[in-house]
Structures are given as C-alpha cells and as structure tokens.
Design brief:
- The chain is mostly beta strands.
- Helices cover 8% and strands 31% of the residues.
- The chain is built from one helix and ten strands, in the order E-E-E-E-H-E-E-E-E-E-E.
- The protein is elongated.
- It comes from Salmonella enterica subsp. enterica serovar Kentucky.
- This is Type VI secretion system tip protein VgrG.
- Pfam families: Phage_GPD.
Length: 198
Amino acid sequence: WHQEGLKLDKEFIHTITANESLRTGQWVLDDFDFTKPRSLLANTVANPRETGNATYEHYEWPGDYFDKSEGEMLTCIRMEAQRSPGSRVLGGGNIRTLMTGYTFTLENYPTAEVNQEYLLMQTLLFVQDNAQHSGQDQHFTFSTRFELHPTREVFRPQRTVSKPHTKGPQSAIVTGPAGQEIWTDQYGRVKVQFGWDR
C-alpha cells in the first residue's frame, strides 16, 4: 500500500498485525414500566463473531427505556459496541500523512483477508532529528504506529463513563403547590427537592 506522491523507497507500512478477540455474541436489555406492569420490554440482539464464547450473553437491567421500539434500538447499539473492538489491526511504518478518522484500503499484504478498507482509530507519529551537532544539516526520521478498524464492521465507541449515582442515603423535602400539605400525582408519588438542587 502507498499513497500518491510519496516516495516509495522512504514511506511505507512495514508491520501489520491482525488481532481477533473474544466477544459476547448476544446482548439483552430489559426494563419495567410501572404504568404498564404487564408489558414485556425485554429485547435481545444476537450478532456473534466467529470466535469462542460467541454464545455468551450480556444481560443489562435496567435498560433505561419505557418503549419497546426504543429498547430495540438501544439493544442493537449495545451489541454493536460490544462487537466493535473484536477485530483490530495494529501496524507500523514511516508514513507521515496517516490521520485518525480517515479510511484507506490496504493492498498487497500476503494474507488476503487483511487486504480491505480500514478506519484509522489511532495514530502515533514519532519525529527524530538525527543531526549529530548544531550547524549540521537536519535529517529527520519518522516512525508511525497506528490502530485500524475494518470498515465492514460497524464502529461504536465504548461506554467508558458510568452513569452518576448517589453514595448512601439522600435527604430531601417534599414540595408541592402552596396551601397543600401533601400533594401527590395520579400514581401516588410526591415531588421532592434535594439539598443539592439549587
């Protein structure tokens, strides 16, 4: 593989390593809607990779949805995010123009399955000045390391930020319209204001 305008004797990819990892092959989301207690909100999406443990299932509750169609969409997204990092290619070379977020097609690699289009997930460029002392002409060397994601697979970022939650009991004051001692909605719930709610 080479880009137009580059010097083939100087800029090229010299290392490619294809990695496959074990991933759960099925995702299940479920939730409960207290206004419709008999509604079935569970959703299952199976999209196993051709690896071991592909029949394992990940179950998540609550799924944070109250509509079956919304749950189907979220389950599909969770399964794609689970499957996404299962196939990665790591590589190295001295190409200066690789940029994260772009795609390219790898060609002429000895293993035919690796020759395909990739999304550049990460690139690291190392530049070194090889001049022995000041006043000498500068001669730079470049080294690039990169991580690729095959575009035939859907890319979904991982959920790395957890949902906020409280640590221990929280105190609050029951609120409502002026002049009413206790005010509840149609489901018997009260409205409260926490101390941190300004």
